[in-house]
Structures are given as structure tokens and as C-alpha cells.
Amino acid sequence: MRFYFLITTILASSLVINCTRKEDEAGVQSALYITAPSGGTIYSASSVGTLTTGGGWGLNDPTTNAQLNCFGVLVGGPDLNQMGCYNSAGAEVARVGTFAGLVATGGTLQVTVPKGPARQIILIGMSATAAADCKNLGTLTSAMKANLSAPHIIGSATKDLVGDQEVVTINASITGATKFLGCNGLLGGYTPGAVSAGEIVGTLDTSFNGLGYKQENIVSGDYDKGFAIGVQSTGNILTAGGGGITNYDSILARFTATGTLDTSFNSTGLVVDDIYSGASDEFKAMFVLPDDKILTLSKKYSGSYDSLLVKKYLANGAVDTSFGTSGETMITYTSNVIPAALAVDSGGKVVAVGYSTADLVIARLTPSGALDSSFNGAGKVQVATTAISGVHAVKIQPDNKIIILGDQTDYSTYWKSFLTRYTSSGTIDTSFSGGTVTIDTTAGSVAEIAYDAQLMSDGRIVIAGDDNGDVFVERYLSTGAIDTGFGSGGRLSFDAGGNDKAFSLVLQPNDKIIIGGISDANALFAKVTIQGALDTSFDGDGILHVIGGDSEIQRMKYYNGKIYFTGKSGSTTAVTDTLVGVLQ
Question: What is the mean pLDDT of residues 527-555?
């Protein structure tokens, strides 16, 4: 279950967090949205004080509520992997599982945290020289910290985040606040050496099938492959994809946490759905809702054209006939279209995207499966796009704007990716670098294709893909401009030792990046720091080759401190199996 928390008042009397339900792919994440208070005095540069030891914070400690103009939230819980936060004496003052921040007066921020029992929500306050000095806690440099005071815990509350509606009240004040200097390096000051919360270190979790992965031959003796993965609240793992001998069928598979097919799911652990009778169809995308019901995206023939099909299943694998017409909604266009990606916005509305050789198509459905007329008047958009050759990801911002990642080609001299953004009403958002960003960083590159994208907690966009056999990762600001603070000029490119492709990326709670893909015949994983370098805490050099047998990672999901992944093993010209596994 995802919640929205809106901080409506801070410091005046109490901190009120109002929660409303939001669908989430894994059904277990909460999203905190914090609005800082209006008013408050911003420290001037002349107020820089003597706090330059220990944590390296440059401003005097705030002594009044009015001097607090920079805010963040830390979240802990007994079942979370947690880090310690330390004061100047090295004593631990809090345990933190994830963090959000920083945000200046009048701004907003987001952080995702797992739902669960006894969540400790800690409000921190600081003084900043200017609003621009309020940076993400995990990216502060010494120079940035010179314009901030040390963080102070100005209020906290403990709450079980389990229901559809929650209200948390925190009395927040600098009076009696607890000052601290760092949380295992996230804020600087103390680095006890423990692995930070939710860090992926690069080992397969052998509690899953004894190996950390499974190659499931769903269609005996022939092709099957996973294109999407999700985790239900029970801990069961879902893959969505397709397989068959002549014409492929769409397939859902559910595995237990130990790696066996779960026969409580449709009695066999499988749903094999012949959606497009007489032709091939596959689930290209899946979204697991908070109630463990399952949304899927595939294609179906309308009588005139291949069309997008959104179909909904109950948690046990039966069709949810309350959705659309008998459990499905077909979205038609004026040409054949190919399904690509699926997402759910803050109101539970379903966003499906696809493409043809000349068009980008987007649709939005109500939670009940009807076309949403508030989206472009008809619930769908068909936009002529030059030489489009693929759509790979759709992401929804907190304001319900829609970000789409795809690529274009002339099929001979280039493949180039693009990011485009649409407003929640279905029009192109020209505030995003005119509406579309063309990704062609490597001049003269024949094939530069990004296959996945994620939104950071502060709204920045991370993409990853393949540049002529090397992996590349780029980061963009929410405006569409390249983020030059990442890697070299906004980009990291590396050779993982073979013909390398990144098909998937996920973000840890601290916004470090995990890459999944293929390197020659091996499944490939890599980890990248938020500064844009390979993270050597991950398998020694930031790169991990595993499994073999022509294995590739198609999609991953970060869930409760682990990476769940799916894809395929085996040659595309012979038998292939659905690959599923767990990385920790």
C-alpha cells in the first residue's frame, strides 16, 4: 500500500501528516510528501559560525523555530535494515531505515518507505544560508555543508503504516531538539563502517531455490520469457511474460519465497492466457496493486488493428470481472500498436503506453477500467513520432505528469533514445525541455538505446541502456536538462567485459542505482553511486556476472532490501526458460 503524507503545519503547533491511498507496484511502499512551512528566517552568510569539526556543518545551530528553513524526514522501523545516526560524542541518537531531504521552506520532497509496524517518522530541521543550499542528504559535499547547520531532530512519532487512511501528529520544535552530525555517512561526520540500510552488496540469495535463481521451463521444450516482475504482500513473487511453440500465449507465474511454483495461484502456479487467438501475445508489463490484484498489458485484435489490452486478475490468478468488460479493457487506435509499459498514478488511474512505426500511444483508464475522459478528452493520445522503434518505460511523477522513455531509428545509421513528458491532462509538457529530450550523447554512435528509467526521490530521472556494446547510465534534472553533477557531464559509460546491455535499473532508498542486463552469455548486474561511479562495495568492482547459459535480466524490483529479477535463460533460437531470482 502506498500512502501520501502531506505535512500541513510545521512548528506552529504540530506537524500533521494526512494520508491518502496510492497504488504501488509492489503494494508495500509508502510515499512521504513534505511541504515545508511558509515564513521562517533564512540565515545570512555572515551568520556562518564555528561548527566546522565532526560533521563539517558551517552554520550556527538554530535556536528558534524561525531559524529553521531546511527540512527532511528520516524513517525507521524494527523490521527494516537500519543505519545509526550519531552525535558529536559518537553516541547513536536514532536508527534510520531510509531518508528524505532536504527541502527548503515552501518546497516539497518525496521518499519511499516500506509499510509495516512501528514506523518511526523523524522530522529534522536545519538552518540554510539560502534555499538553494537545501540539497539531497546523500549528495552533500563539504562545500555545500558549509552553508548548513547541523541537523536536529525536532520531532518524531511512531505509527503502524498499514491502513488506507492514517494520521500522524508530530509536535515539532527546536526546543529540546537533538542535534546529530551523521547517519553512517549519509549526512557526513560519522562512518562506523556498517552497510547502510537496504544496500545491495552483490550476492545471490540462496534461500531462493538454493541457488538464488531459477530457470523455469514453463512451456515444455520451447520458448518462454519473463518481461515484468512484482512481489505481493505475502512475499510471493510474480513474473509476467509469454511463451509457446507456434503462437505465444501470455503467462503469469507465481513463485514462493523459496522458489517453487505456488500452486495456490490458479491451482498450478501459472496463468496461461490466450488473449490474441490465432496469433502471438505476451504480457509486456505488469503492475501489482496494494490489494495484491494484478494489472497486465498485452495486445488483442480489435477486428481492424492490433490494440492495447489492459487485463486485471485477482490475487489468486482468477480474472477480476469487475474491471472493464469481463476483466479487460481494449484500447484501439488508427493503426496496429505494440504494447510497452504500464503504471498507476496517485489516484489509482492506469496509464498504458505503446507505439507503432509512426506513433506514440498513451491511454489512461479509471481504476474501474473505463477510458478516463479527463485525459485528452477521450482517455487516449496518439502522437505522430518520427521513426519510433520502441517504448521501454513509463513513470508517473508525484504531480501525475507522465514520463515516457523510447527510441527512434532509421534502421541503418542510428538508434537514438528519447524522454518525453505529458501533463496529467494528456498534453505534451513543454516545460520539460520543450516536451521531448533526444538522447544522443555519444556523437556518431550507431546504437544508443536506453531501456529503462527511474525517478529519484528528488524528481531527477535516471536512465540506463546500451551504447554499442557498453553500458551507459545518464541522469537528468526534472526540467529535462542533463544533470552535469552525475558521472562525467551527466553520464557514466563502462565496459562490463563483453557485449553489454542494461535492460533494467532500480534505485535503492538512498538513490544508488542497480543495473540489470546481459554481458555476452551471462546475466549482468552493476551498482552505481549517486555521484555516477561504479560502486566497489558491490562485488568488489561494481560489476557482477552470474548464471550463464545465455541469461539476461529484463526487469527488476527493489523490495524490502532485496532485488527481485526476471528475464530468460537459453538461446533465442532454441529452448528458453523464464529466469527468476533474488539478489541481495
Answer: 93
